[in-house]
């Protein structure tokens, strides 16, 4: 449960715990408030700001957004907080006067901002998918470890009663050891724009600092198709359907099965260029087995853009549809369908008639992070966990960028030109595809680099 200001002040252990965390030691007014700066204050940024700010021990000391028109909601709820357009200027100006940062901006700028904060010893709450590339996700984890910081990824359903219940059922063996998992989401990479090439440029609005919005990405001319939301469809800025929802929907799979890094990944899709994500795709991952899986390896299949696994795999009655998004856990003793977001359901029905679901409670994902910053305890969704999850998501995007479909001239059927990519997580490379290694990272514009930990 969230810690109240009164119970926080009464907790005599906090002073000694805080001594181990340099960001807290440097902050002012530590005995009463956690001083938080926010990068991105509208959309997801506002959702994080609102929920973090509802904790009694939080004080906002800086709001940063590249669009001057997007401070209105934050200012109405938390008036008097100083505005900035450049996160680097905000960090420099605040200096030791802030302890933690929330990052709720487009994916391509997560790592530049979060790493800059962690270099200063600040705790970080960063929106999913944590980072824009595999290499960035690795550096996010390493910087958090190096600086001994409290971190959290913004896949808030990790703390919800639905996902907590689902992961608990798997760990307690409700359907036995898991043989295979299918995960899917209804949206797709270019569902919102249906564009396959850059849109026509337009004058930059006076309220928008376009240079700062572009940030680490290659410079291009402004178009309304990019800001404030449809940036997710473009490879330079977002991660398509997988980048948008992978860290949500695959999160309970990782948590329930204690997964880490896959050993291989393969993709097929509807067609892709170097601008936009495909209309739909299927990603096949193979993971090392764990104590919760049936074999030495386990297959996880991801689908998006309207693709779904076969209804028969779930062992559901014919008159019950698969949810629009979610996962099927196929166990040795039954199946579990975990919708996004709804409570888990066990099948076949005749086997689980009368099954008593255990009691579980949800938690505030944001308050969990604040409480951890104050107490010095890790969260279950810190970058030690979220980093490998985000790496897996971005490995899928590497594979799909290499999946160039071709048409068999005789049968007319679409075949795959790419192969299974074998992943060496320890050395951050593919063992059989040097061309894929080039897609693990990217080139940064000067001033927005992400340094290695």
From TrEMBL:
Q: Where is the Gfo/Idh/MocA-like oxidoreductase N-terminal domain?
A: 35-154
Q: Tell me the ranges covered by the Gfo/Idh/MocA-like oxidoreductase bacterial type C-terminal domain, including all copies.
A: 201-286
Q: Give the residue spans that cross the bilayer.
A: none
Q: Which domain of life is it from?
A: Bacteria
The terms under GO molecular function for this entry are: nucleotide binding
InterPro entries in the cross-refs: Gfo/Idh/MocA-like_OxRdtase_N (IPR000683), Gfo/Idh/MocA_oxidrdct_glycsds (IPR050463), Gfo/Idh/MocA_OxRdtase_bact_C (IPR043906), NAD(P)-bd_dom_sf (IPR036291), TAT_signal (IPR006311), TAT_signal_bac_arc (IPR019546)
Signal peptide (from-to):
1-17
Keywords assigned by UniProt? Signal
Q: Which Gene3D superfamilies match?
A: Dihydrodipicolinate Reductase, domain 2 (3.30.360.10), NAD(P)-binding Rossmann-like Domain (3.40.50.720)
Q: Is this entry keyworded Signal? A: yes
Is Zinc set as a keyword in this record?
no
Under what name is this protein listed? Putative dehydrogenase
Species of origin reads: Prosthecobacter vanneervenii
